């Protein structure tokens, strides 16, 4: 700031106000960032700024002078254990899109603080830091952590290591405009980060990892039981289609598998799409549309029986899918029966041409990621997994495991489901379990042959099997598949993987948006 500028501000009618940022502040923010960061690309694009406001509006604050933002601070809440001390700026901030924001996290992470150069002698940075501390206290977060640039290190790099430089600044033998300010605001240096902001030439790519402890933090009570699982055990049933003489007989067969998977302490049992199809053979039908509607009349009873099994055997169950008549319309519905007695539904969104033509089946209009006692899951019924947008939307809701109950009659149909399921695991950095049926039903029109190989797929990286297949069954053989999946590996992959599909997505260029209900 020049003496002329000081004089101009001193004589100006300054009216400062601390508030949250809004979308209309972007031109002022862009102007400041272009001035403050000319050697680092200048301002963020408008889309990145808007993403921050949308994701965590309470954490984006500014000081205005007569209605114009002249200083700003950006923050995000993270579960710090997921990242640890070895992280880069892009990893922990989601490339500043705040895709790493976790409302249930424990740390307020500082994304950026900057002040219009014309206002620097007014100590606006200190006001922003105090506002951040107040936010941290009000949100009951244990600390503020940030990576701090050391821009004057470039002048000392030839004869000082980063550690020696930090100590010199701490002893006030060397001045650094950022680190000196942060130390004066009660932040402690935890360690030196290398490659934190590679484009920061002034800091030589180094940064300090700083922490401010919230002494008023009240730790959340740790659970003695029922805590978040780090490993989930998936049980899949490769279901043999066989002649059934009653609903009771079908439910008895379901109970056999539920009992077996429960004995192995599975967290969830997956049954195939239309596993109850043998019941269509209980009566003669004039056409397929009549047969599927006959089958639909058993769905409420079977759902209730499976809900009872989930509770009594202490296992979550995805009851494959079953036809459901609702207000005169026919749908294909998957039921998630939790072991606490609650039930959720996922309707098939894309009926196949056969389902629409021969059964007059309609598609649902909601897509939901479900919370369970072992993780966050999604369900896509068969053909739905061939539409990558659906899994992407579930991935954006932090889905960890995708379940795909399917029914395919031929191997080429099966391979469509399998290949797409494997792609969804890689694209969305999640596990995908697929479960189908086998055998023949000569007496049932349109469901007379089956082909299946049930499997659980993983992302493709070093922490997972080399072929990204956790396990798979013998094709066309009735059996169960039991697989343990490590949920913590998904978080490691997202932040430290060879590729990082979630973090590296170009949100400034494209997005997938849900336009329907829910």
Automatic annotation (TrEMBL):
It holds the Pfam family CN_hydrolase. Keywords: Hydrolase. Residues 16-216 form the N-acetyltransferase domain. Residues 232-487 form the CN hydrolase domain. Gene3D superfamilies: 3.40.630.30, Carbon-nitrogen hydrolase. SUPFAM superfamilies: Acyl-CoA N-acyltransferases (Nat), Carbon-nitrogen hydrolase. The keyword Hydrolase applies. GO terms for molecular function: acyltransferase activity, transferring groups other than amino-acyl groups; hydrolase activity. This is Hydrolase. It comes from Immundisolibacter cernigliae.
């Amino acid at each position: 700031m020049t003496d002329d500028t000081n004089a101009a501000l001193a004589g100006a009618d300054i009216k400062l106000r601390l508030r949250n940022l809004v979308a209309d502040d972007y031109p002022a923010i862009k102007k400041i960032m272009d001035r403050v960061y000319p050697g680092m690309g200048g301002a963020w694009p408008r889309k990145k700024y808007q993403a921050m406001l949308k994701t965590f509006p309470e954490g984006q604050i500014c000081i205005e002078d007569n209605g114009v933002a002249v200083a700003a601070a950006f923050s995000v809440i993270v579960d710090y254990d997921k990242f640890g001390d070895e992280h880069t700026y892009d990893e922990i901030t989601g490339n500043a899109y705040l895709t790493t924001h976790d409302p249930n996290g424990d740390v307020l992470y500082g994304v950026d603080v900057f002040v219009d150069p014309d206002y620097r002698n007014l100590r606006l940075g200190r006001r922003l830091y105090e506002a951040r501390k107040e936010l941290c206290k009000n949100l009951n977060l244990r600390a503020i952590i940030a990576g701090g640039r050391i821009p004057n290190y470039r002048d000392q790099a030839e004869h000082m290591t980063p550690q020696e430089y930090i100590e010199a600044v701490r002893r006030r033998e060397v001045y650094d405009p950022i680190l000196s300010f942060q130390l004066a605001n009660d932040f402690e240096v935890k360690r030196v980060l290398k490659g934190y902001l590679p484009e920061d030439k002034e800091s030589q790519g180094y940064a300090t990892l700083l922490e401010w402890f919230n002494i008023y933090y009240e730790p959340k009570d740790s659970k003695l039981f029922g805590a978040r699982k780090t490993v989930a055990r998936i049980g899949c049933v490769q279901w043999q289609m066989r002649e059934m003489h009653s609903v009771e007989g079908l439910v008895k067969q379901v109970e056999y598998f539920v009992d077996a998977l429960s004995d192995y302490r599975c967290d969830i049992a997956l049954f195939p799409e239309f596993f109850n199809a043998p019941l269509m053979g209980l009566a003669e039908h004039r056409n397929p549309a009549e047969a599927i509607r006959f089958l639909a009349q058993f769905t409420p009873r079977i759902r209730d029986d499976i809900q009872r099994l989930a509770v009594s055997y202490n296992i979550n169950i995805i009851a494959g899918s079953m036809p459901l008549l609702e207000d005169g319309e026919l749908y294909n519905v998957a039921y998630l029966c939790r072991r606490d007695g609650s039930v959720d539904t996922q309707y098939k969104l894309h009926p196949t041409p056969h389902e629409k033509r021969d059964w007059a089946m309609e598609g649902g209009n909601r897509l939901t990621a479900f919370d369970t006692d072992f993780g966050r899951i999604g369900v896509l019924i068969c053909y739905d997994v061939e539409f990558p947008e659906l899994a992407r939307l579930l991935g954006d809701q932090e889905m960890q495991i995708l379940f795909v109950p399917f029914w395919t009659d031929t191997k080429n149909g099966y391979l469509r489901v399998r290949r797409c399921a494997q792609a969804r695991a890689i694209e969305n950095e999640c596990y995908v379990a697929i479960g189908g049926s086998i055998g023949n039903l000569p007496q049932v029109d349109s469901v007379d042959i089956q082909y299946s190989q049930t499997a659980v797929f993983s992302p493709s990286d070093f922490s997972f099997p080399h072929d990204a297949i956790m396990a798979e069954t013998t094709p066309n053989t009735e059996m169960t598949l039991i697989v343990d999946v490590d949920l913590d590996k998904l978080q490691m992959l997202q932040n430290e993987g060879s590729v990082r599909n979630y973090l590296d997505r170009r949100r400034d260029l494209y997005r997938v948006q849900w336009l329907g209900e829910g």
